[in-house]
Structure formats: C-alpha cells, structure tokens
Please model this.
Amino acid sequence: MPFSSRIARRYAQAILRPEEMEWIAGIPYNDAGHGFDPFGMHPDFIATGLATFKALHSKYFRVKSYGTENVPKTGSGILAGNHSGTLPVDGMMLWLDVVINARRVPRPVADHFVPALPYVGVLFSRGGMVGGSRGNVRALLKAGELLMIFPEGTPGIGKPYSEKYKLQDWRVGHAELAIRHQAPVIPVAFIGGEEQMPQIARFDGLGKLLGLPYLPIPASPIPLPVRYHIHYGKPIDLSADYRPEQADDPEIVREAAQRVKDAVQGLIHRGLELREGIFR
Amino acid sequence: MSMGGVLVTGATTPIGERLCRSLLADQEVDHVLAVGPHPPERAMPFAHGERLVYRQMDLSRSRAVHELLFGIARDLGVRVVMHLSMHRSVDAHGSKVHALNVDALRSLLSLSERHPTIERLIFKSYAEVYQVQHNLPALITEDHPLNMAGGAPQWIRDRVEADLTACTRMGLSNLEIMVLRCAEVLAPGTGSQLFDYLSSSVCLRPAGYDPVLNLLSISDVVRALELACKASGVQGVINIPGKDSLPLSECIFRWGRASVPLPEAILSPLYRMRRRLRGAQFSYGMNRRRFHYAAVPDGTRAADLLGYAPEIGIDWPTDKQEDLE
Model:
C-alpha cells in the first residue's frame, strides 16, 4: 500500500466507524493502478476527508437534507446547484452530504484555477475533485460517475450580499454534457450558504496576483455556524426530450439549462419559505 | 498467415532490441531487418538465425535511407516499417540531431509511399508531445493539444514535429500510417527523464503539488508495437498508456528514494546545477508542468483498435525488497 494512503487510512480508522470504513473500502471506482484513479482520487483519502470534516457537517453547520432519495444510487448523473458563501463551503457540505446520506462519492467539478492551487488542488483531487475541462467531465460521465457542478461558477460565491439567493449567469455546459451522455440532472438548492460569510468587499487585482479570481473581504473571519439546508429536486431526465446529437444545438442546450435553472430557483424559493431562521 | 518482413529502426535501443526478439519469436514474421548505429559485433547480442538481418546505418542521411528501403528492404519483402529511432539525450541538439529525429522519418514516409512492398509505417511517438496545463483535461485523449511552446527544448520540439510530420501524411497515399503516443517508459537507456530523476537518492519536487503520472513498462510498449504491427487496416494516432498511474510522491517512494518538497523557485537552479556537475539528464524546466498537473494518456482507442490494455507494471525496487523479506 502506498505510504501516504497508509497514513491516511490509519487516521480515518481512528475516527470513523468500522462500517463506514468498510463501505469506503468497497466504493466502486476506476483504479488506474496503486489505488488511485486517473484524476488522483483514492478511497483512503475519501475516508480521511470524511473523518476530518464530518463534524463540520453534523455539528457545526448541522446540515439538514431533503429529498436525498432523488440522488441516483448508480450510474452517471449531474448534481447542479446554486453557489454561495464567499468560500466554497457549500461544495464541501454537498460532497459530505451525498457521501453520508446517499452513500455515493460525487466528483466535484472545480473552476480551472483550483487544481493550480498548491496543497488545496492535491487534497481536493484525492477526494474526487477534477478540473472543469470538458474532457475531464466527459470521461467521468462515460465512466458512470456522479458529478457536482455549480453552473454559476466563481461569480456565484463572489456575489455581494445584496444579491443573495439570486442566481447569477447560468452556464450551459452541464446541460450540453447531460444531453450528450444522456445523464440525469439533479437540481440542488443550498439554503444557508449566503449567510455563512457575507462578503463586504473584493479585490480583483490582488486576487489575480495570488492566482485567485479575486480576494474576498468577508464580514466574518470564519464561516458563521448557520444551519445548512440542502434540497435535492426530482431528477430532470433530459434524455426523454433530447437526443445526444442535439447537444450540438445551442438553442436546445440553452433551453435545457434554463429548465435546470428554473428547477434550482424553485427549490431555493421553497427552501427559504420552509426555513425558520438563519441558525435554525 | 505470413506477415512478410518487418524493418525496425532504433533496433539497438532497449525497446528496439526487445521488439526484435519478440518479432523473431513470431513465426508469422518472415524476416526482421534491424537498423542501428552500432557495428554488427556490438548489436543484437542474442542468438538469431537467418531471419534477422542487421544493418549499421546513419538514418540522418537520406541517401542511406533510400538505399536501405530500395535495397535490402525490398529484397526481403518488408511490409511494415517500425520507426523507433530518436535521440534520447536531452543534451543532444543541433541540425544533425534534428536530421535523425525528424528528417529521417520524413524520408521514410515519402519513400515508403512509393515502395513496392511496404504497406504500413508505425512511428513510436511520445506522450511528452502533449501540452500539460491546469486548465486542460488530466485524462489525455488523442485530440489533446500538443506542446507547441516556442521556448520548449529541442528534445520536445523534435518529437512534436516528427509526430505531426507523420500525422500530416495520413490518408494521402495507400501507406497506412500509425502514430503510437507512448507513455513514459521507466527503464534505463530509453531516454526516460523520470528514470534519471529517480537515480538520485533524494528527489526534490515542488511543494504543494503531487500530480498523477502514467508509466509504461518495456514489456507493454513492445506488446503494443507488436499489436500495431499486426493491425492491418488500422491507422491514426493511438495513445499507449502504462499499467502504473500514481502520484509523483508515490513513484519516488516506490523507487526507494526520499521525497523532499521544496519551493518552486529553487528547484530549477538546483537541478540545473545537478546537470552541470553530474552530467545528469533530468531537466526540471522540461518537466515543470508535469510535476504540477496530472497527465494520464487515455487508452480507450488502443483498446478498441489494437486490443491493447496495459498488463505488466513497472518493476518497482521496493516491491522486490518486500518480496525478499
């Protein structure tokens, strides 16, 4: 067994329950040799991630999830959700929530700058993250993986507090790939992320110097212990309405992406109505 | 069914020699015409019968290539040309090096197109021709961008040019052309940059990065070349991945070396100094991107067209130690 995964496994064994370790050891994935998949994911590091951040999910943010049964148990799929919160904590909570409650390891698709970040890029890739290139996404969908995509991208988490819960420019790549690979899209809404770390200012130039899209100035130095509510909507089966070759039609792709956006916006409205308070 | 004769260039390299042995073991191959730069008494150090013919030759001379193809190759009924010849040293540069790396292939292609017996040309290319970048896919398919950087060393530039030279001739004549972009073969004498890097007892790597590499064994690359040799009717570019995909740190660990992450800024001067003082081959500048971002060749097309799947992994020194214990 590789040296680093030996350390990772021992650490996870000390924190996780035996049945959790057993489940992680049996996760189906594309082992490209030495326990790593071609993108660098390794089950021992998934166990480490779960062991390290489980308490954030259950104790700190006290995540409540609704409609987990809508997450497909097998086969390819795309979880498409709203993005918020200055730091992408919502992505981490979604990853943990799907691992804990749906018993699948989703593959977060990150913006191009994330794999280039030292340490962060490596740690995230061990947990399943891939850079947001078309080739990576195509390979994962063909392999029957469940992807996590935030079609708003970085502008979603970088928006000012005054625009909370308003979906930003909704990119269409996820819809195109879903049509091409006939994968269902599961709309996801995060409630709570907007209040975790309200952004009061941002410095674009300074961020670019650091290899980031911008440098945020949040009102709170650490994320506040808001309660996260994650709503999974009914899967949108684009294959019922569109053939794979229609993925080349920009109008069709925009129409499909709009359907996903409307579904996410609907879930956000419902989630906000159901919420009793920011910390409850 | 007889395959006729096979011409192998670069036959005295570790891969070329193993390929010649394998082809000779195949009774369907009538003759193996092996070509290398060494005199016959130093080449092909194994028993062979009349089916192997060796010629010492400088392929950078187009006249020599012409005489080879329209001389003994025609007489032996060579049907397949397997071009493996390429300068391996990163220090080799200049027009003479370019003549072997690129012009020799150009001559082989144009002569083979009008040759009476040659039907196919297989060029062993390199996965190093691909561009590695954080915003490009980590799983590299054959349509991945190539490294066309102007500042790239001749070692890379020649490989890209040779690869493209072969690609541009595809479909222009009856000659079937196949370009096999092989993952790095981690073995001595193959020109492997990583092999030289791992020869140090301490391996320095950029702090904060640990990309996945894909490595190919000599056994697998020879098997892929043999499959290509027999795949009549198939042409195009095909990736040949290896069985070992692992992060750089694990690679260093499995080779029994110490891995020391250091800030990016000092790695290049340190390895430049190592090259000057020890005459080492590893160039950090040339490998900088692949020491940051994952790059794994996708073998789907090789599986579909050649029936190739990697089978034999690298002979890791630490595995041998564990076996002894």
User: Anything to note?
Assistant: Chain A has one domain: 60-274. Residues 29 and 37 of chain A are 7 Å apart (CA to CA). The mean pLDDT of chain A is 91.
